[in-house]
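User: Modeling request: complex.
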Amino acid sequence: MKTVRIDAKGMHYTPLNQKIRAAVADGAEEIILDNVLGQRFIGDGLRGNVRIVINGVPGGDLGMFMSGPTCIINGNAEHAPGNTMDSGMLVIHGSAGDAAAHSMRGGKVFIKCNIGYRGGIHMKQYDVEARPVLVVGGTAHSFLGEYMAGGLVLVLGIGKDKAMTDRGIGSGIHGGEIIIRGEVDDYLLGIGAKKFKFTESDLERIAPIIKSFCEHFGYDPAKFLDTSYTKIGPASSRPFASKYVWE
Amino acid sequence: MCGIIGFIDRTKSRMDGSSIKAALSLMNERGSGDGAGYAAYGIYPEYADYYALHVFFDNLGEPKRKVDELLEQWGEIVHQEEIPTTPQPGIKKVHIPWRYFFKPSEDLMAGRMDSENDVVTYVVMEVNANVKGATIFSSGKNMGVFKASGWPEDVANFYRIESYKGYIWLAHNRYPTNSPGWWGGAHPFNLLNWSVVHNGEITSYGTNQRYVEGYGYKCTLFTDTEVVAYLFDLLGRQHELSHEMIVKALAPPFWDDIDRMPAKEAELNKAVRLTYGSALMNGPFAIVVGTENGIVGFTDRIKLRPLVVGENGNRLYISSEEAAIRVLDPEVKNIYTPRAGEPIVGRFIE
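Assistant: Request completed. Predicted assembly structure:
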């Protein structure tokens, strides 16, 4: 495998991304970025099947518009990793800031620990293939899946008494699904969101995602493969119809 | 979109401004080069009993004569000088930054003012509202604000920020959106020992402004953040609320959250909301305030701006981005993002 190593210490994101693109054009299959600290837009708009290992804390909008690559982040991420991502994967061995997986339209974002506010905001999907997935190992703050139009958000609550304790889950959701480990108190649901029974066929559907997540972070998938989940989806396809339509 | 930093060493061990400059510069993407500033506490130990008044003068003629006269009516100027600066290609020196070390005199105050803080507050409001060509932008003891229009590193180099050592630092990188970029509009905003850095907008500014003006404060600096400094002075100094209680008044829980609280807690929160309804701040904001007892950080009630906290022993860091905290302290522990409206308080250890 052709590997390229880049020391990002003190480097602005523009030359850093230029180096990454040059390496990809040159046929690199793996790119290792060391000493990353706060550089925004890493891997934005990048295409191909390259694997990027990021050692450090990348800045906001990591993997925005990305189509294909896999990024392994050994550290936390800041705001909006996976913003409008098309396909590929982000594996974050830490936590992420607000608006994780913002407007994502395909691919996977796996986050080992927690995320901030508005995770999965505006996620969307076009067909079965282009179905974005956000998995959070720990918990998420308020407005998870806000205005969600498609895709899957899964919160496992590892190490927590309750997977979700913050409010506004699925506020304004009109497509897609939010699946949360264990029970979810009714008052945590946002306007337009509704609970649905999590069934065996749901489990069958998400089992491959759970197994993949556990494989990346070294968890035993067996303890997550049951129907102890809450499924949250849209109460209707037009949650604010009465707000904008006058007869 | 602005970038903010708050730092405190709880043992009052002082740190020079070089790493604050580097941390703020890392967030250059959050600014537009139209304003940056720093506040440092513990920088004037030789004048610790005197109010350090930092003033922007348009010239040292008429505006300065008027400020000198006003100060002499109320007390003694023990020392004054131009704040040392180094010319920077990126900064046009449109004002002359000056500093006075001033103490109100008891004889002159007798029968007219209750406290030294009242005298200094009066002087600040009087100069900023009525003396053309002069703006007092810092008025605390053993602390000072340094700010101008420019990028973080240029403003830091202009004021030689590395030569100051403080146990509290605030820093701000400005991206002005709906008010002019001028020196007085750069952050931190200060009154007495309260200094405020802010990312966002106070959309309730009109309500908050009318509220503080009812108590004699005058909003003269053409931007929303100024009112936050006066709200802290009113609630913290005049009403003697704790930092946590001030945050509860400015960014209170929602009514339905209060309904779910235990009876006693609900009663307290209800009372705070009813008493301080006009102090409630709406809009997106992340704020760090420096005070004489420490720092306090908080965000708006639905968290529309980022805020990250980190700790390492006696040091507490608050910033818009984790990377900025890691520039200040690569060994930082316990990094987390606080909840909306949650007060993050760092106090000195007695």
